[in-house]
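Discussion board: Methods & Data

I've been asked by a reviewer to show the raw model output for two of the constructs in my manuscript, not just the figures. I'm not sure how much to include, so I'm pasting the format here to get opinions. Each protein appears as its amino acid sequence followed by a line of discrete structure tokens. Is this the kind of thing reviewers expect to see in a supplement, or should I convert it first? Here is construct A:
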Amino acid sequence: MEGTVLDPAGGAPGATSASVMHRARGLWRRRWVMLGVALAVTALTAAWTLRQPRIYAASTSLIIDVTAPRILDGEVKEVMGEERSNYWFNKEYTGTQSEVITSRAVASRVVDRLGLSNDPGFLGLPANQDEKTRVQALQAADAVGLLRSRIIVVPGKDSRVMNIGVEDVDPKRAALLANEVAAAYMAENQALKMRVTDEARTWLEVRRDELGREAKAGELAVYDLKKDADMLSTSLESRLSIVSERINSYNLKLTEVRTRIAAQQARVDAIHQLRKAAGTDETWAEAVPGAKDGPIQDMKMRYGEQKVACAELSERYLPEHPKLLECNRKLEVVREDLLKSLANVVRSAEMQLVEVKGEERNLNKLLDETKAEAFVVNKKAIEYGQLQRESDDNQRRYEDVLKRLKDVELSGLLRTSNVRVLDEARPSLVPVRPHTRRNLMVGWVMGLLLGLVAAVVLEFLENTVASQADVEEGLGLAFLGVVPRMEGGREQGERDLYVHRSPRSAVAECCRAVRTNLLFMSPDEPCKTLVVTSSGPQEGKSTTCINLGVAMAQSGNRVLLLDTDMRRPRLHRAFGVPNDFGISSLVVGEGSLDKAVKSTEVPNLFVLPCGPLPPNPAELLHTRAFKDLLRAASEKFDRVILDSPPLNAVVDAAVLATQADGVVMVFKAGKTDRGAAKRALRSLADVQARMFGAILNDVDLRKSQYGDTYLGYQGYGPIQDGPKGAKGGVAPS
């Protein structure tokens, strides 16, 4: 079976074009509210405008140059600055002058000159006041602030023209005030210039004296430093040059000595290595550089000759022979002399190395002393340079201040101004305020906006179910259709059987559309049992149930209407059948279903009355016997429609919803509260009831909010078949 089991409290997600159109139609429906608010606001605006005093304006035009005309030499500059061509500078300058014109200083000059603080007409005081009250009002009034509030400064576009406007209730006084404000501005501008010049001259005189003392102290400090450093006869640059030459000379000699040390050190290292490699050979020193000098070569020859002689004697004589012994003694003496000479050569090389290293130490000491002296001289040079720069800077600043002081004194004697009057103000007899036409237009627009806000607020405060959008988007239910307001007789029976007796009416057509929507929701598995309920009483639930049964019966189906409202049953009265035997009797086991079912004047439509009212309807509907009764009825009839009590009143409808194939809600258009509808749907959701949808009942098609949506029901065929001019409504449940 088709249908939905959903949470009705959340509504439909998001807005659709249908809801937008619904809101738009709601606003259009309240167009008279918007129009009324707009007219009321416009009328109030007109009344307020007519009560306002007439305000007149006068304007004086000034030409404001950045600087005054130059009379002195261009090198003599004034204190107030110089002219520039920068766009942002000119813009800021114009804004500054506008602030000066509207300043309290300028307004005070005008008030004092014209005596405005004692002018009741200017202050807006009533003329019929007594003297005491008038004096108190004059003392309490702020004439300067009042004048400032009336001054309007408008700079000329792309020019140096400044328009000074003043508003007043008297056109002549407005022109007078405008001219006086311009004159006061020029006087204030000149006074400001003189005041700044005097302040600058005072400051420059003080600064001149201070810089004079600082320059003199700097010169004395330079002299004292030169005296302490003995730089009176020799300049500092000469001393630095002498020390630098000495350092260079010492560095050259030190480089030369270190070269000799390197060579001598290599010679001594070679001698030590040769001695270590010779071992016990006493003649190793022959390989030392310098051992081949003449005397040593002579000793070597004598040693060789003596050695040859001893060798010859050893061949002729025995070792103890006196000649051989004498020869060997002489050989030993020559050998010792040779070895001593070779040793002296080695010691000479070592002593030369020691001597050269001593020379290097002396040179390093002299170089260090000279460098220390150079550091001292450089430090004195730094101190001297710093003092000299400070002295020169003080002297330069002293000269600059002295020159500027003379310029300021000279420029202070000038009385030129950079402001000139272009056009004086003249009285104008045309008021500038109030702007009657503009105020009315603004009032009309504001009224329309306020009316729109009021219409929107009323639309959103509307909390009833009144349209298809409210059903689908606000409650999340399928919309089955509408039932128009019934136009027929005043009798209850005529309204209940309106579809049967007026088959060509809009109500009948709408009921057939609802029937079609219900049947097409599940064409393969048609619903057998259907509960029709509402959120509260008096919403047309029973009448809708009857008319829906009539529409289904007209399609050829055998339809049974069950009056399950065992608290306020009404179906038996609608069809004129007795209520002494019915559902309550069958549930307790009295009689049979065929006996209890009553036929009606509508073909294929039958009704099963409620029967005697039981004390416990909810428990009775929850019994096994009622379920069997419902199943037996669904087997004998094509459709079984249950007319149940309202959901928010009793729990009977929720109990019936669990036993039927589905539920159809009936909402009275413009009357059913959305909160009540959501509570009713929540109770159905809690029991997992299957919802087929909702029917919007008692829709007045003549209202503009429904005319566009359901125009077809009004424009196609007759709307009613009932008596002409009859009035009616929806039958109470």
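Construct B, same format:
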Amino acid sequence: MSFGRNRRRSSNVAHLIAVESVEPRVLLSGDEKFKAVLTGTGGTTIGEVKYEREDKDGKHKLEVEVWNAAMGLWEIQIDGKFAANFVTDEVGYGFFEFEHEGHDHGSSGAVNLPAPQAGMLINVNFVKNPVNPSIKGIPISGRLVSKDDDSRIAADLTASVTTAKREILETEYEAEQEGGQQKRRLELSVYNLQANTAYAVQIAGKGAGTITTNGIGQASLRYSDKPRAGYTAFPAGFPAVASGAAVTVGSALSSTFSAGTGTRAPLSQSGVHQKIALSSATAASGFVTWEVWTPTGATAPKRQFRIEVWNLPAGSQHAVTVGKVSIGAVTANAKGFARLTFEDGDADKAFPKNWPGIVDNTVVSVGNSIAGAFPITVPTLAPLEQNVREAYELDQSLALTALSTLYENSGGKGEKWLKGRGKDWYFITPDGSLYKWDGKAGANGARVAVLDDAFFVKPELLTEAKAARDSSISDDLVKASAARLDRSLELSSAAASNNNWGGLGEKWFRGKGNEWYFITPDGTLTRWDKSPKATGKVVARLDGRYHEKPELLTEAEAQLPQAEREYAAKTSLKLAEFRPDTRGWLFNGAEVRWYRGFDNRWYFLTNTGDYYLWNGSKSAAGTRITSFNDLYNLPYRLMNATSGADADARSVLDQLYASAASFL
């Protein structure tokens, strides 16, 4: 049985199905492609349509996505004829998808798709809000134009720089050729600049806009030729972006666009990993780490020495000594933070020729008043075993990401900052406490977890938390996490001819929003960064089973026992009761079973086992969430569902279908 997915999205990208036509990093999902931009008058509602047809069998695929729309029920018309209904959420976002194969549609109504062709008129009209009939929506429309199947990236450029004051500039620019037209996207972000200050942005010496930093010196600028949530249209006369063009913010922050990409060095998993604390008679404090390990596949050991200190006087300089040997100096940034790193294999961080080494009782000093010593028994960098499992859960649930800067000590608590889901930010303090930022100036917010201080020293242990196949990570938890990835990323296996494209023995997936992912033999799942190599951002760490059999991931929800999925539906949808008294509602001619949630949302079960979130209309219609075998004749079983999984896995199952309830 196939499992439907919740098609609601919080981003601007649309889901594309994977097929078996291969060209490096460009797969075609239909023989004929059309698109339309939807606009209206008297409002800011916008939309986008993607309409595809496969000539070999006449199958169609339709995607409609809208933003800034009135909350409620909407209707799609094609050349004046009704095609389908869908609903928008409380933030004005709505999404409809129909795939002819299997009649797996993302919303309600009878779907009647004529063959797409250029010039076809698409209307999206507001029908009603069943809760608040006074709400009115702005109709939008547009005509289909041919979308060039050979859509290729015309430019993929980056520009970044980190100054001595730890001021950061990160810029991404993409341009794609679509149907003979170039579609651009630019995102520029800055960190650690002067707080609450406006800065002029220039590209190639011409004005490109203005940004104003927030309370911790961050700001961003986003332009797109396509309708995208969180982006604005490129202004008229925007300067051309090309490799070699300079981008500047203010008078001192500047970089040059290039096609280069970078990767994070792998985590060391064995060898010597030690840390000591640095203390002083003032507010200044910090730590030192010393690591020696042999990377996978290498024969020679690799060394890394790192010092981090915070709460120094801004701009102050301090000599660093190891033993009695001066090895360098640090300068505190405007936030009082300083770092010094030496690492084998990195020419910019080469060990000094007079490096004395680390032995028992080695004293490390920063300036005249900050010091620490390596004792005979040295604390290890390895986190406490019980924290490994919690870190994995936190990473999966909060979607934590470490950007190129951690904005150290921006709030004055020696903290490091991590990006979460949506607009959420988190920071971790030197004692290992993880907080959700409250959005106000300073490092303030609610504490969400207490971890070992190893996670502060190496935040990547949290942002790239691994579901290790050992006693600390249960099989139940790995499988539940894979199911959540399956639903959130909407993965489908790419053609086998893509395997080992990057030379890592990796296997490839297509995900929602035309994203690409690959999994390596150790079970590491990575979102591809569109570079000429198999590199990108680690999304999750599972285990080798998911590389050996990728269908364990693409069908991970189906791999869960039905009892666990029934439990997940009961808890994540907050079901309150089965309603046998609600009768007379038909779906494809058969009576449906009704369930009510504690939030007064309604769900129904069809005689084929499909489970839907009701859209509030006068018929049994809505968003298909999942499917259950044999539940139709035993509808009470869902309300009595229990889980045999461990507590950690249940905490993941409790969120498996949660996003479905926010669709209406």
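Answer (T.O., handling editor elsewhere):
This is acceptable in a supplement if you add a one-line summary per construct. For B, something like: The chain has a mean pLDDT of 78.
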